[in-house]
Amino acid sequence: MHRHFMRLLDVLEGGKRFLITTHVHPDADAIASELLMRKLLKERLGKDVVVVNDAEVPGYLRFLSGTEEVRRWGEVSGEYDVAVVLDVGRVERMGRVREAVERTKCVVNVDHHRSNGRFGDVVIVDTNASSTGEILYRFMKEAGFKIDRLDATYVFVAVLTDTGRFSYDNTKPQTLRVAAELLEYGVNLRDVMNGLYRSCSKEQMALQARALASLETNRDGTVAWIVLRWRDFEETGANPDDTQEFPEIPRSLRGVKVGLYIRELRDGRVKVSLRSNCGMDLNRFAMAYGGGGHRAAAGITFSGMSLEETRRFVVGEIEAWLRKGGYVRPRRM
User: Fold this and answer.
1) pLDDT tens-digit series, residues 236-257
2) Which of 123, 93, 99, 104 is nearest to 22 (CA)?
3) What is the distance of C-alpha 281 from the center of its chain?
4) Cβ distance 260 to 321 under 8 Å?
5) Of the given ranges (30-44, 200-214, 315-329), which has the lowest mean pLDDT?
6) Are 102 and 124 in contact (CB under 8 A)?
7) Fewer Cβ atoms within 10 Å of its own Cβ: the N or the C terminal residue of the chain?
8) Which residues sit opposite 109 in a β-bridge?
């Protein structure tokens, strides 16, 4: 077993009370990884475990068994021996839960983002992994834990979503081998796909209609974007955390190299989700402006600028990066 995994196993076996958390606005990899770690600690190791996040579980992920056990900040209290921080690139991304994490005796950091700050006492960051869920799966296999269908379902959800249904650059031969292994454990593919992609509410559909109506491109069609204001969420009744697929709307337009989903947050800040079709390193781009993520998918949150000012700034900066050759030209098929 890899020495980092050995150290992780020692910590998991040695601790008594565990706090598990992830980043603000949690996605499928984040929630699935939390549920997998909770199940491992509680059922296999008999530990006292609480999962607490800054925000609630997005509606589209509530089909997963165990989400009802995830708590929001303020709903739990107490002291913990170990904090297991999953899928978090920087400590600020934990939101308010950071306070509890910093009071623990030991912090475990498991992640796959290039932008990870390597915080914590036990650090396992594998940027070659498709997802945090995949890292935990490898750990469980190497440590000799039995893997059942629910474990495999959590990992499959993490891998499927963080690779954009096996379409992003982080989809490697090993990724597909892992997916095949997971199906052999009995993962119900139909239930997973229905839960993730075929369970939109009318409110979410109404919001998507507004997003489509806002679609625009720059002059040469290489950058496309959709824009949603906070009032769009209020008027439709849609939840911002249920818009994980919205960045794919501008990215899907023919000829687009970079797609942007730009939305206003309740507090006036502006969140920009970026997706690349051309090999441009969006993690590198996002980190230059305080964000981060992956090569083909990243995010930045801006403050102090209006929605329109943010849009103009980001589009202009991306155009400049593209002019400078800030992307890998696609090979001929």
Assistant:
1) 999 888 898 999 999 999 999 9
2) 93
3) 17
4) no
5) 315-329
6) no
7) C
8) 85, 123
Question: In the structure encoding, which two tokens stand for residue 6, read together?
Answer: 């050995």
Amino acid identity at 279 = G
- Collapsing DSSP states into helix, strand and coil, what is residue 287? helix
pLDDT of residue 114: 86
Within 13 Å of residue 311, how many CA atoms lie on the same side as its CB?
Answer: 21
Work out the end-to-end distance of the chain between its first and last CA atoms, rounded to an integer number of angstroms: 40
CA proximity to 264, closest of 313, 309, 221? 309
Which pTM does this prediction carry?
Answer: 0.90
Is residue 116 within 8 Å of 139, Cβ to Cβ? no
Q: Determine whether 57 is exposed, middle or buried from the number of CB atoms within 10 Å of its CB (0-12, 13-18, 19+).
A: buried
Could you tell me the pLDDT band of residue 76, with boundaries at 50, 70 and 90?
Answer: confident
Element (H, E) at 294: none
DSSP single-letter state for residue 279: -
**Which pair of tokens denotes residue 327?**
């992307």
Per-residue pLDDT for 329 more than 70? Answer: no
Beta bridge partners of 106: 82
Cβ(298)–Cβ(321) below 8 Å: no
The CA distance from 29 to 86, in Å, is 9
DSSP-derived 3-state class of residue 321: helix
Strands (E), 116-243: 122-125, 216-217, 223-228
Cα(272)–Cα(264) distance, integer angstroms: 9
Nearest Cα neighbor of 35 from 164, 122, 153, 188 is 153
Helices and strands, counts by H and E, the chain:
12, 12
Give one DSSP letter per residue of 213-278, joined into a string: HT-EE-TTSSEEEEEE-HHHHHHHT--GGG-TTTTHHHHTSTT-SEEEEEEE-TTS-EEEEEEESS
For 30-38, what is the mean pLDDT? 98
Using alpha carbons only, how large is the chain's radius of gyration in Å?
20
pLDDT in tens, 92-103: 999 999 999 999
Query: Per the structure block, which two tokens stand in for 40?
Result: 């491992």
Q: What is the mean pLDDT of the chain?
A: 94
CA distance 284 to 197: 29
